[in-house]
Write a structure and sequence with these properties.
The structure holds two protein chains of two kinds.
Chain A lengths: L1 H22 L4 H8 L2 E5 L2 E2 L3 E3 L5 E2 L1 H14 L5 E5 L5 H6 L5 E3 L6 H4 L2 E11 L1 E6 L14 E5 L5 H6 L4 E5 L2 H9 L5 E5 H8 L7 E5 L4 E9 L3 H16 L2 H8 L6 H14 L1
Parallel strand pairs in A: 1-5, 1-6, 9-10, 9-11
Antiparallel strand pairs in A: 2-3, 3-4, 7-13, 8-11, 8-12
Helix pairs in contact in A: 3-9, 9-11
Chain B lengths: L11 H37 L3 H15 L3 H14 L3 E3 L6 E3 L3 H26 L3 H9 L4 H31 L11 H12 L2 H30 L9
Antiparallel strand pairs in B: 1-2
Classes of the chains: A alpha/beta, B mainly alpha.
């Protein structure tokens, strides 16, 4: 019986410690400093934000940002642990305490704001755009009404395409099929993630194509933090602001082959104006 | 009930998609079934001629289209034929576009696939015909054509009806593969609806029920036809 009681006692202490630990989320900054390492959730399959390079290292726009934040907090960009996350588990990883911050193509939405806090927004991610031949004269979504446009089955914007723009959507299972069909002139364009299409345009095969219709929406992207973690939140925001002011984000756009966005340029300008 | 959520069915867009999907599935099934029966009859007729090169051609056709997956045939028709030069110039844009639309590719593939199976079904009907009947017709002075149309074909049709029912129900269900080449039939829209709503189970159950109902109508009609055409001493005429 004594053994059992001891066990119960130990469990109770452990439970209390656990509860105290989860109640003290406000202490992430101290934890990170005590640990000497920032644990970040990043993508490893999403060019250009977080992906594996040919050496097998995780690199990308947001990975560079995460390393910069680690350098600001701990003095070295190597004091970091990159944890690969996917869209369906990144918020659980954060709230469960397995990572300190998310830098993984996290779009800012009201639903998510109920569960986590967002850092300052640093990217405005484009929605879908339309890839078409250079000779194409269309430039607006409305002009696609009644036209056959290739797409991908299951894309979140397919309903909007057919309902709102009246597009005759020809949706394929996979991207290679859609690209093939576009080259075959089965459709006048291919509607897909702007960032992916921009990367495609760099391939020599696609030199005679262009982004004919620009994205109709942009979604701000930000880092994700546990709720109410004010001290850590301020420290991370300060680090991001410093990176913007130093023009780092513009340099990373270049480094990772992203088209330069007005959004990031404007933020860099505002950040450096604040500093001076 | 059972925690299933069918609230997405209230969305007019999804209602329209399901309706369009069902209509396109029915069109594709009706067109390819009719063509398959026609091909089956012509092929079986060709085989009764006992001419070497016609036999060889029909057998080659059957082997090619019966022994390859219909999905592959559709993909081949859709992507490969146009690359091989089966293209026309669109007068409105001046662009060179594929001659065959997705629907045409699917309808042709399914017709040929079903047709190959139907030839074999009709052939088995003709070949299993009691010799005595053929001999009786011959002794009554029927010529080759008259014998085929008035004696052999009507009896063979009755014998091969159950086999034909199998072929047509399979053909009906195979139309779902046309979603891969973007024919907007029932499965094409079902996939889009559960991607939008995340109600995978609910959409699957509904689509399953729609297929059960549609195919049941077909099998019921075929069973009625079998009963109507039954003749004494064979099949349902027992």
């Amino acid at each position: 019986m004594t053994g059992f009681k001891t066990m119960m006692g130990v469990s109770a202490v452990a439970l209390a410690a656990f509860l105290a630990g989860s109640a003290a989320v406000a202490g992430t900054l101290e934890n990170v400093k005590a640990r000497g390492k920032l644990v970040v959730g990043v993508k490893n399959d999403y060019v250009p934000y977080g992906y594996l390079n040919d050496k097998g290292d995780v690199v990308g726009f947001e990975v560079s940002l995460a390393k910069y934040v680690a350098k600001e907090l701990l003095g070295s960009e190597d004091k970091i642990e990159l944890v690969p996350v996917v869209a369906s588990n990144r918020i659980e990883f954060l709230t469960a305490g397995r990572i300190d911050v998310i830098f993984a193509t996290l779009g800012v939405t009201a639903d998510r704001a109920k569960v986590i806090d967002f850092t300052t927004e640093y990217v405005s991610a484009a929605g879908p755009s339309v890839l078409a031949a250079k000779e194409a004269t269309i430039s607006k979504w409305d002009e696609l009404k009644g036209k056959s446009v290739c797409g991908i089955q299951g894309s979140y914007y397919n309903k909007k395409m057919t309902e709102e723009f009246g597009i005759n959507l020809v949706a394929f299972k996979t991207q290679p099929e859609a690209y093939r069909a576009l080259k075959d002139n089965r459709c006048i364009g291919f509607v897909f993630d702007d960032m992916t299409l921009q990367q495609k345009l760099k391939e020599p095969d696609w030199a005679s194509y262009k982004i004919a219709v620009a994205p109709y929406e942009f979604q701000p992207m930000a880092g994700g933090l546990r709720k109410g973690d004010t001290e850590f939140h301020e420290a991370v925001d300060k680090a991001i602001g410093k990176a913007e002011a130093e023009g780092k984000l513009i340099a990373w756009e270049t480094e990772f082959g992203m088209p330069h966005s007005d959004y990031i340029a404007a933020r860099a300008k505002a950040a450096s104006a604040r500093k001076n | 009930m059972f925690g299933l959520d069918y609230s997405w069915l209230a969305d007019p867009a999804y209602q329209q998609w399901l309706l369009t999907g069902v209509v396109n599935t029915l069109k594709l099934a009706a067109l390819s079934s009719s063509a398959a029966i026609l091909i089956g009859m012509l092929g079986a007729l060709g085989l009764t001629l006992r001419i070497f090169w016609i036999d060889a051609l029909i057998e080659l056709f059957v082997e090619v289209f019966r022994n390859t997956p219909p999905l592959l045939q559709m993909l081949f028709a859709y992507f490969t034929l146009s690359s091989l030069g089966l293209r026309v110039t669109d007068p409105s844009t001046g662009l060179s576009v594929p001659l065959l639309s997705a629907f045409a590719c699917a309808a042709i593939s399914l017709s040929l696939f079903g047709g190959a199976l139907a030839i074999e079904a009709f052939r088995s009907g003709i070949e299993t015909m009691p010799r005595a009947i053929v001999d009786a017709a011959r002794s009554l002075g029927y010529g080759r054509w008259a014998r085929f149309w008035r004696i052999e074909a009507p009896i063979a049709a009755r014998i091969c009806l159950p086999g034909l029912t199998n072929i047509l129900t399979n053909l009906f269900k195979t139309t779902s593969q046309a979603s891969v080449i973007t024919v907007p039939e029932l499965m094409y829209y079902a996939g889009q609806i559960y991607n939008d709503t995340f109600r995978t189970l609910e959409v699957m159950i509904l689509v399953l029920l729609i297929y059960v109902v549609l195919v049941s109508i077909l099998t019921f009609a075929m069973a009625r036809l079998e009963a109507l055409m039954a003749f004494p001493g064979y099949g349902r005429g027992h």
